[in-house]
């Protein structure tokens, strides 16, 4: 059974998810997950969804990369604190390594890429979180290939 890396763009309402190929070279969008009001419920349901996907497609999850929305100064703000709460809950529920990844400007990059591809505003809104997860995961994978 091969292994893959998953990427997550966490938001209080929606969570974008992407996954790598088995060679860990290319990130692909998977889905947008609706968050619950309680982070504990969100985390449990999200982990169940990720595990089911890995079972359905017969791979093992090697790592989960979660985008950390740092401020432009590089410091953590309120959004990053909320993501850390999510990450800590996730770490309580799984042995899978959770990696944080600087996601500054990924939503802007995702929006720009979709606009350039001619996607209308409604489709962009539906896809932005998934595309941000792809950008987070792809930049992580690229850093592993270089380093």
Structural features, described:
The chain is an alpha/beta fold and 147 residues long. The chain has a single domain (2-146), classed as Nucleotidyltransferase, domain 5 (2-Layer Sandwich), CATH 3.30.420.140. 48% of the residues lie in helices and 26% in strands. It has four helices and five strands; from the N terminus they run βββαβαβαα. It has helices at 39-56, 78-93, 106-116, 121-146; strands at 2-9, 14-20, 27-34, 59-68, 98-102. A five-stranded mixed sheet has the order 3-2-1-4-5, with helices on both faces. Helix 1 packs across helix 2. The radius of gyration is 15 Å and the shape is globular. It starts with a strand and ends with a helix. 31% of the residues are buried. The mean pLDDT is 88.
Summarize the SSE layout with pairings.
Layout: E1 2-9, E2 14-20, E3 27-34, H1 39-56, E4 59-68, H2 78-93, E5 98-102, H3 106-116, H4 121-146
Parallel strand pairs: 1-4, 4-5
Antiparallel strand pairs: 1-2, 2-3
Helix pairs in contact: 1-2, 3-4
Rg is 15 Å
CATH overall fold name? Nucleotidyltransferase, domain 5
Number of domains: 1
Write the CATH architecture name: 2-Layer Sandwich
What characterizes the major β-sheet? Answer: 5 strands, mixed
Number of strands: 5
Order of helices and strands: EEEHEHEHH
Structural class: alpha/beta
CATH class group: Alpha Beta
Give the strand line-up of the largest sheet: 3-2-1-4-5
CATH homologous superfamily (4th level) name: YqgF/RNase H-like domain
Low-confidence stretches: none
Relative strand content: 25-35%
Tell me the overall shape.
globular
What count of helical segments does DSSP give?
4
Distance between the ends: 25 Å
pLDDT average, as an integer? 88
Helix content: 40-55%
């Amino acid at each position: 059974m091969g292994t893959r890396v998953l990427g997550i763009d966490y938001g209080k309402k929606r969570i974008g998810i992407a996954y790598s190929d088995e060679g860990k070279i290319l990130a692909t969008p998977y889905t947008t997950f609706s968050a619950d009001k309680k982070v504990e419920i969100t985390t449990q349901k999200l982990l169940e969804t990720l595990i089911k996907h890995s079972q359905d497609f017969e791979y093992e999850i090697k790592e989960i990369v979660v985008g950390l929305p740092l401020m432009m100064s590089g410091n953590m703000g309120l959004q990053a604190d909320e993501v850390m709460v999510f990450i800590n809950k996730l770490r309580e529920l799984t042995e899978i390594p959770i990696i944080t990844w600087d996601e500054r400007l990924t939503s802007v990059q995702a929006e720009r890429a979709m606009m350039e591809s001619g996607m209308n505003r409604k489709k962009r809104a539906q896809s932005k979180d998934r595309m941000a997860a792809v950008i987070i995961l792809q930049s992580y994978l690229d850093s592993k290939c270089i380093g």
